[in-house]
# Entry
Amino acid sequence: MFAAFIKKRIVILKSPFISHKNTNRLYSIGVQKILESLRISSIISFTFREAVNDVEYKGYLIPKGWKVMPLFRNIHHNPEFFPHLQKFDSSRFEAAPKPNTFMPFGSGVHACPGNEFAKLEMLIMVHHLASQFRYEVVRLENGTQYGPLPVHLHGFNWW
Ligand code: HEM
# Structure
């Protein structure tokens, strides 16, 4: 799924060493892939907020003191905002998603302050995994298992 990214990355970064300048380029060619990965397979499943007063929402009462948990997987797999939601399509992120339809790092004043750092870490990790190892799926049949995060049914061989 990272094939196109890896191809471009190999052109830009011929060695495993990443300079600061190349980090910026790596970010610009790869960040949409990271966002789509986080959409398909959100690392954190949910956050929660406590109602500080009684709140009425769409005919429901959320009593003061109760907690509300937005489930990121459900939010990120809403076909209204993400058509063909099972398809890995990083071009979805060429335009910014509508507010509160995509929140792998939470939302509002307590949103993750480490989100940019985390995205960069993921890109650098993918760069090293792609430039120093090779992979093949263990068996050809397609499939995903949830444990609870989705992984390929029989995993990968790597060397
Ligand atoms: C892929 C990696 C990461 C993911 C998916 C992630 C996700 C999240 C989420 C969902 C929250 C809760 C936000 C909310 O309730 O609205 C959070 C909070 C937080 N994250 Fe991250 N995070 C990641 C990496 C990091 C890193 C690298 C740092 C620090 C360097 C960090 C620091 C924090 C802190 C301090 C909070 C608490 C913020 C607050 O309560 O005000 N996170 N993160």
User: Anything to note?
Assistant: Helices lie at 3-12, 20-40, 72-76, 115-132.
